[in-house]
Amino acid sequence: MELANRLFFRLYQCANMLHKTGTKAVEAEGLTTQQWAVLGALSRPDAEGGISVGDLARYLMVSRQNLSGLVSRMERDGHLTSAADGRDRRSKLITMTESGRRLWIREATPKIHDYYQQVLEDFSIDDVTHTLHYLLKLLDNMKRLDDATRAETGEED
Question: Containing H/E element for 45?
Answer without folding.
Answer: none
